[in-house]
Sequence to fold (414 residues):
Amino acid sequence: MYMRKACNGSDRRTGELNSALPTDLSLADSTRQTTTSPRKRAATRKSALILRILRQRARGSRNKKPQTFYSIRAAASHFGLPATTVSRIYTQLRSEGLLTTIWGSKTLVTPAHIDNQLRVRAIVALPASLTSFSTLRDYRNFFLEMRDALWKSGFATRLLFYEGNDAQSPSFAGLLLNYKPDIVIWFQPIPTSKGIVARLLDRGIRVITVGDCSASGREYHYCIDRERAIKGGLFGWRQDGVRSVIVLRDPRCGSASSVALIEKVLRETATPYTFANAESWQLQHALPPYPQAAKGGFIFPWSELAARLAARDPVRFANLAERSRILLMDGPIDLPGSDAIKPLTDVLHVDLHSVTKRIASDLIQSTRSRNGEPVTFEAKWIPGVYKDAVEMPCAGQPRHSAPAHRLGQSKNAV
Fold:
């Protein structure tokens, strides 16, 4: 159906174009005018008339599937107009939704009704904390990776943000139900989410949780084990001269299980430690004289807490990160102006691509029992890069040289 006068020619389509042109469209008399204004008015009338003709032809050709239309070159040659004029006419028709253009200058009449026959396996809701999504890189990457993995596997996703204590309200379950999901995947659910999960299960909605490994071992369907990574990191700290650790906590942020895990590892490694309340704790009190800086380390059980303190006083936090060892349990933080912080903090990293790939694969194959043993993924310790790594060696060994910093990725092959 494509017009071969412009692209390999087509007598039938050329005849259609000829029949669409009225016999009185010729502007021979108008073009003989000596003044510019009448000539422009005549050209404008001709363009408007051609626009109406092509609009009618496009509407008459619309079907359930895209149809080829006259090329710009063929229409310009037939009507005796510059290609730029016809291009403007086609731009108008595209803005009206009648035409579309694909690579190679092929023009198509858009279908009357769009129907891609899209079929999805299920609708998956992904509840996410807006604060964590904005400030925690690994948290944000999980949802981006999960959305891509699900889409490639034929699932439709809905990202639902909540702020503060919104997810603790009974109405949050109703909000999730309003989107009629078949599955809910909740990454790092809040401690009070059990009631919401129970309500969703009562409605026949499958709920999949991803969180840190707990003592019970069955709290989540997929869990992240950070214990070995913490032990390896503390071993590296000890080699670098760290003699004691301060654990910063806030009862309004995160779960008690993270603090309990850190305390367990500190005891097992015989590392002296103390706890400090982050809200009442003054950062300036944590800045010892520079020669003693390598003697202490600071652990943030929740990276969101570090993000809050860094946002409150970024300069002081950056100074602390430069002069002391800091561990962020949930990965690096992203804040405006915090580029100096990121490479100076130690973090625990999880291969989220493997996690999301495994979840999507299990959903397709239905291999995961809802009451089975959780699939466990191991975090690994990623040390920061310190400016004084060469200037302040400990026992003749440069910082971060211990192989114990980097551990395996997953206990379950993916």
Summary: The domain at 224-350+380-405 is CATH 3.40.50 (Rossmann fold). Residues 36-61 form the longest helix (26 residues). Residues 10 and 328 are 68 Å apart (CA to CA). The chain has 14 helices and 15 strands.
